[in-house]
Amino acid sequence: MFDFSFGELALLAVIALLVVGPEKLPELARTAGKWVGYFRRTVNNVRSEVEQQLLLDEMRKEAEKLKGYANEPLQEVEKFKASIEEPLLATEEPSTVSAESGSEVAEGEPEVTLPSGSSGPSRPQGQILH
């Protein structure tokens, strides 16, 4: 971080010894060491938080890409579904429901009712179907 040569550090130590004195120099060195350690920890914490935020932003971008990739097949299916439904809806004739029987009757066709007790077309007795 800071480039100090050995000579510069020795000169700084001699000046501190002359200014502070030999009795208070060890206390000053401990205090300076604590502050330097605190400063380094703070810088490292800030650096790691910035790196985490950058990594988190990168992961969010990747997640958005993956969501886009996941939605592409769904959109294709929706397009295919719409392309199939359009012709079916266009060719489908409107129908009405008979109130009596509950069955669908196409417009323009007469409604056929069965006699009571009859459930539908019957086959002649004794005829075997293969």
Automatic annotation (TrEMBL):
- Which gene is the coding source of this polypeptide chain? tatB
The organism encoding this protein is Igneacidithiobacillus copahuensis
Where is the segment annotated Disordered? 91-130
Q: One cellular component GO annotation, for this chain's record?
A: TAT protein transport complex
Q: How does it sit in the membrane?
A: Single-pass membrane protein
InterPro entries per the UniProt record, alphabetical: TatA/B/E (IPR003369), TatB (IPR018448)
Q: Keywords in UniProt for this one?
A: Cell membrane, Membrane, Protein transport, Translocation, Transmembrane, Transmembrane helix, Transport
**Stated family:** Belongs to the TatB family.
Under the subunit heading, UniProt states: The Tat system comprises two distinct complexes: a TatABC complex, containing multiple copies of TatA, TatB and TatC subunits, and a separate TatA complex, containing only TatA subunits. Substrates initially bind to the TatABC complex, which probably triggers association of the separate TatA complex to form the active translocon.
Q: Which residues form the signal peptide?
A: none
Question: Does the record carry NAD as a key word?
Answer: no
Would you kindly state one Gene Ontology biological process term found in this protein's UniProt entry?
Answer: protein transport by the Tat complex
Q: Name one Pfam family in it.
A: TatA_B_E
User: What does the protein in this record do?
Assistant: Part of the twin-arginine translocation (Tat) system that transports large folded proteins containing a characteristic twin-arginine motif in their signal peptide across membranes. Together with TatC, TatB is part of a receptor directly interacting with Tat signal peptides. TatB may form an oligomeric binding site that transiently accommodates folded Tat precursor proteins before their translocation.
The Swiss-Prot or TrEMBL record annotates one GO molecular function as: protein transmembrane transporter activity
Q: What is this protein called?
A: Sec-independent protein translocase protein TatB
> Where is the protein situated, by its record's location annotation?
Cell membrane; Membrane
Here the segments flagged for biased composition (Low complexity) are: 97-130
